[in-house]
Sequence to fold (215 residues):
Amino acid sequence: MTSDFVNRLKVCRAERNWTQADLAEQLGVSRQTVQALEKGRYDPSLPLAFRIARLFGRPIEAIFVQ
Amino acid sequence: MNTATKTAAANKKKMDDLTVGLCALTVVGVSVTAATPFWPAAWGQAPSIGEVVLAAGLAVFLALHTLYWWRGLDEAAKEAHKWAWWWGGNLGLVGGGAVVIAAANGADLLPAQAPHSDAAMVAVGVVGVLVAQVLGYTIAWCGWWMARR
Fold:
C-alpha cells in the first residue's frame, strides 16, 4: 500500500516544529490524512499537493519526488 | 483564519441552522394535529398535517445533513468511504446472496417462533442483505484506514 512517490512532508513539517495536527489544520484535512501522506500510503490529489507546496513555499517537485 | 478553517466554520453554521430547523419542524409535527386534506381513502386513515410535514422535513433534513457532512470530509476520508462503499458493499452483497441461495434451496432461516409467511421471508432477505452490506462496508472502511496508518 505504498506510493510510487517519495515525499518530504515529514521533513518540511519538522523544520517548522509543527505537529501532524498543526499541519492538518493548516491544510484543512484530518490528522489521519497527514499521517497517511507522510508515510507515503496515500497520494494527494493535485489541488492538495498544490496546497501543501504553497504552504511550505516550495515547488511541488521539491516535496514529492518520484 | 485560513481557507480551510473558514470552510469548516461555514459548514458548522449550516449544520447548526439545520438543527434549529429540525427543532422547529418537530414542534410543528407535534402540535398540528388536523388531518391531512385530500388524503386518498385507499391509503387508509389520513395522518395529521404535522406528521406529514415532519416526515417530509426529516427527508430534506437527512439529505442536507448528508450533503454537508460529505462536503466537510477531506479527500482521503471521502476516498475511504467510496472504497468501502464499492468493495465492502459488494462483498457484503455476495454474503447476503449466499443467504438468498440457501433460502431458495429450502434452508429455514427464520426463527421457529417467527411467522413463516411470504412477507416475513422477504423481510428477512432485505434485512439480511442490508446487515451484510453494512458489515462489509464497516470492515472495508476500517481496513482502508488500517492499511494507511
User: Anything to note?
Assistant: Residues 98 and 129 of chain B are 9 Å apart (CA to CA). The radius of gyration of chain B is 22 Å. Helices of chain B lie at 3-31, 49-72, 75-104, 118-146.
